[in-house]
Each structure stands twice: as C-alpha cells, then as structure tokens.
Amino acid sequence: MVSLTISTIAIGLLWAVMALGVYITYRVLDIADLSVEGSFPLGAAIAASLMVAGYGPLTAIIAAFVLGALAGIATGLLHTKMKIPALLAGILTMIALYSVNLRIMGKANIPLLGVDTTFKIARNLTGLNSGECTLIVGFVVTAIVSLFLYWFFGTEIGAAVRATGFNQQMIRAQGVNTDNTIILGLLLSNGLVAVSGALVAQSNGFADVGMGVGTIVIGLASVIIGEVLFGTRSFANCLISVVLGSVIYRIVIAAVLAMGMPPNDLKLFTAVLVAIALAMPLFKQKLSSRKVVH
Amino acid sequence: MLRVENVYKTFFPGTINEKRALNGLSLHLKPGDFVTVIGGNGAGKSTMLNAIAGVWPIDAGKIIINNVDITQRPEHQRAQFIGRVFQDPMLGTAAGMTIEENLAIASRRGQTPGFSWSCSSKDHDRFFELLKELDLGLENRMTAKVGLLSGGQRQALTLLMATLKKPELLLLDEHTAALDPKTASKVLSLTEKIVNRDKLTSIMITHNMRDALRYGNRLVMLHNGNIIIDVEGEQKQCLDIPDLLAMFEKAAGNSLDSDRLLLG
C-alpha cells in the first residue's frame, strides 16, 4: 500500500510538469490551448525514438522540450499572425501533431523494454525500488521547472507575458509586442508539456500515439484542484498549488480505481470532476447569497 | 512636436455601416501644448487619438512626432513616444498584477524587456514617493492587486504610469468620464499638476465644456472628422460656454445637438 502511494505521488509529479505547462496558457495567458494534446505524445514519441536509437535520457528530454516548443510556436503563429482563434489554432496543431507523432515513431507504439531510461539509471545508481526512483526524479524535475518558472515570470519579459494575459491593450500601450509574448508563453508551455510526455513515457515503459487524449482536461483538473485546495495568494503559491493539484488528482484516480471503478470510465470521471471544479465559484456564490437571504 | 497631416480613416468601408471617422484631419502641436478636445458623439475625437496611438492603420495622411514619421509603425513601437490613459479604468492597468508590478512595467515603457528582475528595490522607494504624492493611500498598498482598486484609484495609477517615464506626448481619452464627479475633479487636477510639472505635450478629450475651457492652453472642437474650432492662449481664456456654442453654429452651420456636451 505504501509503495503504491509512493508511486502514485511520483506519477503525479511527472504529470505536474505538464500541469505547469497548462497553467502557463490557461491562467497566465488566459488561453485554453489544446495543442498540449499533441505535444504531450510528441515529447513521448521523440524521447522514445531517440532512446531506442541509443541516445541518453537527457538528450531525449531536451529534444522533447525543443520539439514541444516548436509545436507551441506553431500554435502561436496560427493565433497571432493568422488571427485564428486560440482554441481553433490549438486544435489545428493538435491534429497536425497526430501525423507528426506517427512519422517520428514510425508506428503507433514504441516499447522501452531493455532501454536505459532515466528511472532505470537512477535505480542502478541508488539501489532504490522503481517507485522511489520515480519519486526522486519527479521531485527533482518538478522543483527545477517550478524554480525556473518562478524566476522567469519575475523578470521583465515574464512580467510582460503575465500582463499580456491580463490586459493586452495595457501592455501594448507600454510598448510590448503582444504577438511575441503570446508565442513565448505557448512555446514555454508546450515545451514543458512535451518534457512531461517524455518522462511519463519512460515511466510507463512505452510511448503511444494515443497517450495524449485528455491531456488538457487532466491539466485543467490539476490546476483547478490545486487552486481550490491550496490557494492562489502569490505566484509562488500558485505554482506549488498546481504541482500539489497534479499529485492529488493522481491520488483521487488511484482511489476510485481501487474502489472498483472500471478504468475505461476514467476519462468520463475526469471530465465530470473538472466540470464540477470549474463550476465551484458559481456554487460558492449561490450558497453564500442564499445565506444572506435567510 | 506632433504633426497630424491630412489623415483619413473610414470604418467598415464598402458596407452599410460605412463611417468616415476622420476626414482629412490636420493638427499641429507645439512642445508643451496642452490641448483640450471637445465634440459631439461620433465627431472623431477618440478616433483621432487612436490614429495617433496606432491602434489601427490610417487610410491616408501622415503622423509625425519630433520629426519621426510614425505613420507605418505598429502600436507597440509608438509607445516609446506616447503615454496613454483610457476612458475605461480597466484598460490602463493589469488587474491581476500588483501596483508595484504595474509601475515597474510602466517605468520601462517603450524598452525591450530583458531578463533582469522586474521589480527592483531601487524602484520600490521611488514608486513609494510617487504614490504618496497621489494622496490616495496607495503607497501602503504596493503589493495589492490593482483589481482591488476603485475606478478613480485605477485612473490615478494609470495616469502615474503613463507619465512615469516622461512621454513626448500624453493622450488622455475622456479619462474621467467613467468616474463620479468628485473623483473626476481630483483626477483632473492631478492631471493638470503632472502636465504642468513635467511640461508635457498633451491632448485631452473631454465631454465637459467647462473642463475644456478651464484646462490647457488650447482648445479644438471636432465635427464630422475634422477640426472646426481651434483657439489658444488669451483668446481661449476669454471664451465662455455661450461663445463656444456660437462659434460652433457659425463653423458647422447648424446648432449643437449633443445634450451631453452642453450639460456636462
């Protein structure tokens, strides 16, 4: 049971990198970016292909970030330069990436059996079991990413990206090209999502072209659960909330599966969970206004 | 200083909603001019400011600031010359960021952002002093999100942001129209104080004839996308509201039909 909990938390941390990426678009830029549904398996695909070809895990993860970032740029260009609504731009990139991912992998599924993944290397180095290794790697990666994001969004450029999400008119009047800040945000977001895909593929032991289905909803679930449970007082607080939100989401999923819910119903369950979480502010408002009346 | 030369702008050309908003408008400003702009609804006041700020491209004409032709430049590249305050208090600030973060962004208006830390401690003290001068108690709330401020506080902050880095030209688009009369007059006197202190070349749109006469050294009235009245200096100081109405009737050939302009 303990080892099950550890591996659940560990998986939550690997997915937290994706959730942080979704946070950048959904909360910071105020865009629901569906390209993550394609950039998550993109990261998995490139990482698996490179590692099967003999490259090391670090190369694979860096390659995943670069390709994910390119996918983000594609969505950004569609949205800013071609004036396609953000939602649609994301959908176009997502669909295009399905073919790209198949091209990269050459087939629908690449197993990573017998390949030296990040986790296998960590296991050989430390002698710990696979759950504990995943936990350590997940913690280190999430910490690095969170610290980087905290630094980045505190800089002049990061502040400009955040201001773009709040008020494009204002930041343009301050002399910032909002096309560039939007593209930059999407680049960063999709790069991180692809890194998460690369890590999850290594942890699962395979990359699959269909593993991106529902990424955006899982990301939103993590963001919203985290915000509701752990608060949004400051930017650092928000980042920690998102990471913890991703972990809590995995624990909830593990719990309902242990209670006997068929795995096929998982996506439905997640969708309902996110819908309820999104409607939470409204529920709260209605409840408090009723209290006033009585 | 500012030269607006023969500018035309038509919205929705070729449709049933076609609207010629600027009709060969020309305006020359000398350094330090503080121009108040009045005119009825649809006269082209905001369109003129948006044309100068570069919100969209103009159809014909030229816009020149300090001998630099900015006609072809996009909005964000004009920001190095221009500070702006909008009619809507929500538009000038980023609601989800703190007062200090908003000021830090405004202190770099027109510069390419880099990788240094956005809010420095050196700026902190400077912002504290400037906020104190506003006399709204904002200096003690620098880490509060701007979304928590009232409309008047936000406009005062936006005004401070627009002038934090001295602009060549300050554009005020009915920036007190959305405020209650008391707050409006406070923001207006603050505007006058800053404009006089920094000798800013400014254009201020107002719907209030009394304010238009009281503030600034020059007054222009727009009608159908063109300037029909342009008075300055002593001539402006001697005017009162009936004079303005008479001048309008003479220039436009009909009587003024905007109650809002008369009653304000």
What are the key terms here?
heterodimer, A: mainly alpha, ABC transporter involved in vitamin B12 uptake, BtuC, two-stranded antiparallel sheet, about 80% helix, globular, B: about 260 residues, alpha/beta, Rossmann fold, six-stranded mixed sheet
Short description:
The complex is a heterodimer of chains A (294) and B (264). Chain A is mainly alpha-helical and 294 residues long.
Name the pair of protein chains with the most residues at their interface, and give those residue counts.
Answer: A-B, 22 and 35 residues
Number of helices of chain B: 10
Name the shape of chain B in a single word: globular
* H and E string of chain A: HHHHEHHHHHEHHH
Return the CATH class of one domain in chain B: Alpha Beta
| CATH class group of chain A | Mainly Alpha
Mean pLDDT of chain A: 93
Strand order of the largest sheet of chain B: 6-7-8-3-9-10
The SS-based structural class of chain B is: alpha/beta
Q: Overall 3D geometry of chain A?
A: globular
* Strand-residue proportion of chain A: under 5%
> Distance N terminus to C terminus of chain B?
31 Å
Count of discrete alpha- or pi-helical segments spanning 4 or more residues of chain A:
12
